[in-house]
Amino acid sequence: MRLDALIFGGGAAGLWLLDRMSRDGHHVLLLESHSLGSGQTIASQGIIHGGLKYSLAGMLTKSAKNIRELPTVWRDSLLGKTTPNLTRTQLRSDCCYLWQTDTLASRAGMIGARIGLKVKPETISSDERPESLDGVYGTVARLPEQVISPHSFLQDLATQYDDRILQIDAQQGLEFQLDSPGEVKAIRLISPTDGSTLELHPRQVIFTAGGGNARLRQQAGLSADVMQRRPLHMVLVRGPLPELNGHCLDGARTRVTITSERDQLGRMVWQVGGQVAEDGVKMDARSLTEHVRRELSSVLPAVDLRQAEWSTYAVDRAEGATVNGGRPESIQVLCAGNVTTGWPTKLVLAPVLAEEISSRATSPYLSAPFDTTPFAEWPRPAVAALPWEEASCHWWNVGSVPVIPRRRAA
Ligand SMILES: Cc1cc2nc3c(=O)[nH]c(=O)nc-3n(C[C@H](O)[C@H](O)[C@H](O)COP(=O)(O)OP(=O)(O)OC[C@H]3O[C@@H](n4cnc5c(N)ncnc54)[C@H](O)[C@@H]3O)c2cc1C
After folding, report:
1. Separation of alpha carbons 151 and 208, rounded Å
2. CB of residue 313 inside a 6 A radius of ligand 1
């Protein structure tokens, strides 16, 4: 079957692109080898950053510039004012809180945060503060950065494009036929359920498979040595906790970033990232849990953690390689032959990546509407489970920490 484009990988990047190219009239399919968003999107904190994080040193950095229009783009999609329509995506919060620790550098961070950003922190009075921030040092600010639930976001787009998202077995059921390195002639799929086959002839092949891009590029005859992984070790806290979404700043660092969502049984779960998740890469689960418990007690004196249960998960950020191995300033796109490889770098940048890739695509060459009935019987992927809903997620009270298996990299 002839196609305009074939997308590999159904995280934030692939799904946003699928929406964009389908709306532009392309005959496009998305192939997913595990569950949608497994890897980074489902593990992310879902913050629609507006650049604050990247201007804490007091300067408007390139990263902050690249990101500052994005909260409006997402807000309009979440309201259904623009495409993709994300009105079924659940908001964890309409804003983040910012507070600081008792250091001079931290106060400078709050000032630096105001430079040149569209989404700026506004100081709130003490009676507007959430109870969880009682007793914290200095001012508290509200930052109009929304926080989404990644699971509902993935589900929202998966439901809208169910007819063109297919499950594949990337090990046993995927074969590339190449004209030359980077020139894909055809893709042959074997159904993971009944062994039936499908031969696809896409004009363009797009890899938005996060950490899976390296292997896919090899299969397309291209170098895999263009990707980097930056690990994080995140902490989960569950129990009688208040809802809280925000960052505790310490100079140019985010000492902790906390996002909250209730689990399927209605219990509050905090995802704790920021500096502690970077530090945690070198720690085992027990040491990291103890470190984070101390940090939270220090930066949130009013929160009672005595009944909390703890867990951790390790996950890699997968990005295009940079010279020094640091975070790329924005999206990364590589083109060779009829293959495009893309990494959004941040969830919030998925619309920018979709715009960049779709604007390079030639106009659709098949003018008739895309008839997806030939794929009606093909298996569909599920949406990945949130880290705290995974069967492998173990919980403990401080003092009884099991060994946690490493999460599969995307
Ligand atoms: C802990 C953490 C917190 C984060 N928090 C934020 C945040 O708050 N805000 C923000 O803007 N960004 C955040 N990020 C970054 C953000 O999550 C990522 O930049 C973004 O989700 C990447 O999306 P993606 O679609 O490129 O990759 P992924 O989400 O990793 O999706 C890749 C998909 O490709 C599939 N795949 C892999 N191999 C193949 C194959 N061979 N064939 C087909 N499919 C394949 C995978 O199963 C997966 O579904 C965070 C990242 C992490 C790790």
Report:
1. 18
2. no
Q: What is the DSSP string of 95-128?
A: -EEEEE-SSHHHHHHHHHTTTT-SS--EEE-GGG
Nearest-CA residue for ligand 1 atom 19 is: 346
Instruction: Please state the domain count of the chain.
Output: 1
Q: What is the rounded average pLDDT of the residues 192-220? A: 97
Q: Is residue 157 part of a domain?
A: yes
- Residue 33 belongs to domain spanning: 2-397
Looking from the CA of 49 toward its CB, the CA atoms found within 13 Å total 22
Residue 25 in tokens: 């009239």
pLDDT tens, residue by residue, 104-136: 555 555 665 666 667 778 889 888 999 999 989
pLDDT at 191: 95
Bridging pattern class, strands 268-273 and 227-239: antiparallel
239, 313, 233, 225 alpha-carbon torsion, rounded to 10°: -160
Q: Which atom of ligand 1 is nearest to the CA of 345?
A: 19
